[in-house]
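## retry 2 of 3
previous attempt timed out at serialization; input unchanged, resubmitting
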Amino acid sequence: MKKVLLQSLAAALITSFASCTQPTNTSATLPETVTMSKEKLMDKIKGGWAAQTIGVTYGGPTEFRYRSAMIQDYVPIGWNDGCVKGMFDHFPSLYDDIYMDLTFVEVFERLGLDAPIDSFAHAFAYADYGLWHANAAARYNIMQGIMPPESGHWLNNPHADDIDYQIEADFAGLMTPGMPNTQCEISDKIGHIMNYGDGWYGGVYIGAMYSLAFVSDDINFVVEEALKTIPAESKYHKCMSDVIRWHKEYPNDWKQTWAECEKKWNQDIGCPEGTLMPYNIDATINSAYVLIGLLYGEGDFFKTMDIATRCGQDSDCNPASAVGILATMQGYSKIPEYWMKALRQVEDRNFAYTNMSLNRTYATSFKHALELIERNGGKVTDNEITIACQAPKPVRLEQSFEGVFPIARRAINKTIEDKKEFTTEFEGTGFALTGGVKGVKGYIARVEMYIDGELAETIVLPSGKTLGHRVDLAWKYLMPKGKHTLSFKWLNPEKDTHIKVNDLLVYSDGPQPVAHQ
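## retry succeeded, writing output
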C-alpha cells in the first residue's frame, strides 16, 4: 500500500517460475472435528506466514503500477535468491502487510487473548511506521479521541471500504485453525479500528479462508465455505459470488473472469484519492483478485501468486493473501525450495518496527492457536491437537456510503498562504477535499470549516511530516441536496508553512445524467 515503490529494485530481479503439487485429500463438507499432530499444525502456521512474505516480495515491484490494467504475461516479474534480504535491507516498508499484523500479535502476546480493543488501537496508532488510507485515517481519529469502532466508520473515515484490514487479517485466521467464527470475533474487534462495511468484510473473508485452510485441502470448498461468513445482501458477497460463478463458466481463462470483474465491480466510491480515477484500493475488487489467484492457481504455488499479482492494483498485498492461504493449506514444508532459498536469509531478522522475526512469529501464532483450540471445545495433548470445527456463520450486515454517489472530481490546485482563507462552491449532497499541510515537523494547523456560512468543524491538521496527519483535508456526506458553499479559515498560520488544496470530490444521492449538445 506504499505510495511509491523503488522501481529500480524491480530491474535487479530475475524472472523465474516454480510450482508445487495439486492438493490432495479433498473434502466437500466441513468435518465436526479434525485431529492432527502438533508438528503438522506448526507446519501450516509457518506456511501461512512464510508464503505471505514471499508473495509480497514477489509482487512488490508491481504495486499500483498497473491500475485497472492486468500485467500481461510477457511482462517479466523477477525473483532471485537475494531479493527478500534486499527488500529487508533497502525497502522494509514493503512488508506493511506483515508488520501491521504483528502489531496485533504482539498485543495478544503481551496482554493475553482477552486484551481490550483500546490496547490494540493505541499500539496501532502510536507505532513508528507510516500509514496510508484507512489505517492513516484511523490513526488520526484515535489520536483525536475517536476510538473504535467509530474510528473506522465511513462517516469518520472516507477510506472505510479500502483494503487495509484485508491485508492485516492473516494473523486472525492463522490463530484460529478450523474456527472461522472465532476469527470473525477477533476481526470484528480489530478490523473496525480502521474499516467498516466492505472494507471490514475483506478482512473477515481472508481470515475465514485462512481458518478453513487448516481443515480442508479443497480450495474450491474453502473459498465457498468461507464466503458464508459474509452477509449475502452485501456488495462484497455479490462480487465474490460472481467470481466463483465466472470461474465455473470460464475455468481455463482467468483473464476473462478478470475482465468481467472490471466491467461490473471496478468502481470506488469512498477513497478520495481513487474515486473517479483508474486507481482502486477498494477491498472488494482487490479481494476478487485474491480469489482469482486462488481459483485459477489450482493449488500451484507459483501460479496462484503470479495470477493474483497480474490482476493489478494492490499487486503485492493480493498475492501475499492468496499464497498465504494456499500455503496454510499445504504447509511450510511444501513451499518449493526455489522460493525458500530467499526467505531463509531473513527468518531470524525482525520485521521493521517490531520485535518479531518470522521464527518468533511462527512460535507465537502456534501458541495462540493452541490456546484458542482449547477455549473453543478442542483438545491439546503432548503430541496432537483436535479442532472442534465451526460451521461459518454470517457476520452482521453493514454497508458504507449508502445513498452516496460520486458525480464530479474537480482539480482545485490552490495553496492557502497569504489570504489564509479558501472558498469554493459545489452542488450535491456531500464532498471530500484532498490536500494537506506542508511545513515544519511538529507544526499543527487549526482550520475552521464553514458550510453555507455556518461553522461545521474546527479541524486539526498536523503537518505531513508529523505522525498522525489527516489523510484528507475535509469531507461531509448526507447533506441536503443543493448548492453549497465551503470555506476554510486558517487560524494559526505559520511562516514557511502552507495548506495545499488538491481535488474536490462531489457526491449526490444518485448518478447524474450528463447533457450533451
